[in-house]
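Consider this pair:
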Amino acid sequence: MSPDPEDYLPHSMVHGPIAASPRFRGRSKGGFYGDVVEELDWGVGEIVKTVDRLGLTEKTMILFTSDNGGVVRNDPPDYGTSNVRPLRGHKNTTWEGGHRVPFIVRWPGTVAEGEVCEQMALSVDFLPTIARFAGTTEPQDRIIDGVDARAQWLGEKGARSPHDAYFYYFNNDLHAVRSGEWKLHVKRPD
C-alpha cells in the first residue's frame, strides 16, 4: 500500500500558528516545534534535490532566511525556540535575538561552499541585489531602501555591508541604531 499523499505534502509552518504533517509529528527530540523544523528541513531538501536532478544546480541560486528571531520559549508551550545564548531578545524586540537570523545562499559554481560573512546583511537589499543578478535594476520611479549587496552574497574577499548604519523601528518609534559591531538602544520598553 502506498503512503498517504498527505504525508508528503509540506504542511509545516514555523511561523505561528505552527503545524506539522502526520509524517513528522512525534519524530523530533525537540518536541512539536522540532517536528515542524524537521519537516521544513525535509521540504528544503526536496527542493534542492529536484534542482540538482533537473541539472539546474549551477544555474539556480537558492536563498534561505527568516523574517525575525524566535518567539519566547514556552510562549505558547512547546515552541522550543530560544535566543538566550548567545543573543539577547526575541521576536518583537530590537535586540539581536529579534533580528539576527540565518541567511544562506546556495549557488554552486558561483558562491563558495562553507563561506561565512559576519557583516550585517539586510532583507531590504533583496530587491536590488536579485535584480542585478537577473541583469536588470530595481524600479527607478520610487525610493528603494535596499542597495546592491552582491559582493556579500557572493562571499567576495573583504566584502563589507553596504550599510553604514541600520535603524531599528518598532511601529513608528526609533528604538535602536546599529553601526558596525555597535548598537545604540535609544528607546526601551522599560
About this structure: Residues 61-190 form one domain. Residues 31-53 form the longest helix (23 residues). DSSP finds four helices and five strands in the chain. Residues 148 and 169 are 22 Å apart (CA to CA).
